[in-house]
Amino acid sequence: MQVPARILQRRLRHQDNVAISQVLVQWSGQPEALATWEDYDDLKRRFPRAPAWGQVGFQGRRNVNIDPDPDGVGPHAVAQREQRNRKESTRYPREGWTR
């Protein structure tokens, strides 16, 4: 039995004014050229533990939990987003909000 091995692309397909999420699936034991478009929700329901969902162990790639650049200055450093100044809402008064 073939199972989804990798998700290659994603798209939204509109049907009867409803957006349906679809994924291009490479099936186990098949080349990318034979990948098929499948409805994401249906596929996830039929194959809840498939390797395509990232629930498998080590696949010969680096461990994503290890920070390759702890100083944050190398070629793989991620730029930090500036904190933006928030404006008061003219639509909703502040006293109505709780934190």
From TrEMBL:
List the biased-composition ranges (Basic and acidic residues): 79-99
Q: Which stretches make up the Chromo domain?
A: 4-49
In terms of InterPro entries, this protein maps to: Chromo-like_dom_sf, Chromo_domain
User: Organism's domain of life?
Assistant: Eukaryota
Region annotation Disordered: where it falls in the sequence: 60-99
The record's section on SUPFAM superfamilies has:
Chromo domain-like
| Protein known as | Chromo domain-containing protein
Query: What species is given as this protein's source?
Result: Lolium multiflorum
Upper lineage ranks?
Answer: Eukaryota, Viridiplantae, Streptophyta, Embryophyta, Tracheophyta
